[in-house]
Amino acid sequence: MSEFSAPKGIPDYFPPASADFLAVRNALTDAAHRAGYGHIELPIFEETALFARGVGESTDVVSKEMYTFADRGGRTVTLRPEGTAGVVRAVIQHGLDRGQLPVKLCYSGPFFRYERPQAGRYRQLQQVGVEAIGVDDPALDAEVIAIADEGYRRLGLTGYRLDLTSLGDETCRPEYREMLQEFLLGLDLDEPTRERARINPLRVLDDKRSEVREATADAPLMLDHLSDSAREHFEQVKAHLDRLGVQYVINPRLVRGLDYYTKTTFEFVHDGLGAQSGIGGGGRYDGLMKQLGGKQELSGIGFGIGVDRTVLALQAEGVSVAGAGRVQVFGVPLGAAAKAEMVGVAGALRDAGISVDLAYGDRALKGAMKAADRSGARLALVLGERELDERTIEIKDLTNGEQQSVPLDDVLAQVRSRLTS
Ligand code: HAM
After folding, report:
1. Among candidates 46, 88, 55, which has minimal Cα distance to 258?
2. Is the CB of 300 under 6 A from ligand 1?
């Protein structure tokens, strides 16, 4: 056992699995960039009140899971548990909403939630997120959802489903909430569940216990009580998704863990992950700008994709996305003079954009060739004293074992033509 280990619930990513991690992150950010989302780099911690007000005091995230501490100046700060509140804060602070709308932003990185660690549930979790702020257009809701769907599909993921619903708006939700609360408090529920019904009645609809599911089978559903404008918005989102070829399942009981959602709300669920099946989710948050002190009442929509869980989903499906090996070329110098020459060759190849690793530590031919195989390289370059005297170098194709001696001065062109053939 090593003396130190990573903090509980925090994964390390290292080769080769870290290549999957990067592939997931890049597939999702690339999909966002293709739709015109610009990169935003957010602070890792913010003033605690931003999350308390933005995410909602009654949520588990705020009431139980925040990493909050006083800095040396006595300010209360919190490691970001999610990205939306920080993006909205930055948009307000820098007046980005005074420019072209919608403001379309994309971010990635670690977030922190003090949850009970288990498979797929970490205390440091990684997300790729997008936010589109300032235009209330159902086509934008569909775009955001389609970006996530495209990212997953490009990775080769197939075993996921998109759950979709509408949580209504300020004209219909308060009335529905009261109706649901009345219904729930009329049931014979245990006290903690009754308490939840008082604080956040929608959460009770998401209860996984079969007795609660049975008792709430006839509960009123938000989707049946949408205002005309919220219903029209939802109809249009569905029509746009149909046009984009994005499949979805209407789940009127979908409940999210954050309080800011209005209207379109969604979650991507993967079957291969057990209890922690949510690989990404998001929705509209039309009141958040105002709630965080924005002068204008601007709408917003976005998603957060769980990178860790998407990596697990790929593994569960047996999909390998990491691609080729660590490097394209592996250099094997035999002897000090050959090593000096090979260091220069490696530098020249790297300058030309070719990835190269070397056998370091004066290894004998056999051990060095084993390292070459393990590197996943396509080609090995072998340089001994005899070759050096003749100003030649051996190029071995590690996929078929073919070997050829070429002039040392021609090595770049020779390597290049083999890599592209
Ligand atoms: P969220 O649903 O809380 O939404 O998190 C998004 C995704 O992050 C989840 O679907 C899940 O894949 C991943 N995730 C959350 N907690 C953990 C954890 N403890 N361990 C591993 N993965 C986790 C948000 O954070 C919103 N900010 C998304 C959003 C953006 N809504 C609108 N815009």
Report:
1. 55
2. no
Q: Is 99 exposed, middle or buried (0-12, 13-18, 19+ CB in 10 A)?
A: exposed
In this structure, which long-range contacts are made by residues 47-50, counting pairs with CB atoms below 8 Å and at least 24 apart in sequence?
47/75, 47/76, 47/77, 47/78, 48/76, 48/77, 48/78, 49/76, 50/78, 50/85, 50/86, 50/89, 50/292
Q: How many angstroms does the Cα of residue 9 sit away from the middle of ligand 1?
A: 16
Give per-residue pLDDT as tens, 253-266: 998 989 899 999 99
Does the CB atom of residue 125 touch ligand 1 within 6 A?
Answer: yes
Site to probe by mutation for ligand 1, drawn from 51, 89, 112, 125 as the one with most ligand atoms within 8 Å of Cβ, is 125
pTM of the model: 0.93
Determine the Cα–Cα distance for residues 328 and 380; give it in Å rounded to an integer.
Answer: 9
Atom of ligand 1 nearest to the CA of 81: 25
| Coil vs helix vs strand at 300 | strand
Report the C-alpha dihedral over residues 163, 168, 169, 170, rounded to 10 degrees: -130
Query: What is the torsion angle, in degrees rounded to the nearest 10, for the CA atoms of residue 182, residue 183, residue 185 and residue 187?
Result: 160
E-strand ranges in 239-384 read: 249-250, 262-270, 278-284, 300-306, 329-333, 356-358, 379-383
181-205 tens-digit pLDDT: 999 999 999 999 999 899 889 989 9
Residue nearest to atom 31 of ligand 1 (CA): 282
* C-beta of 113 in contact with ligand 1 (< 6 A): yes
Judged by DSSP in three states, 276 sits in coil
Structure tokens at 168: 């209504």
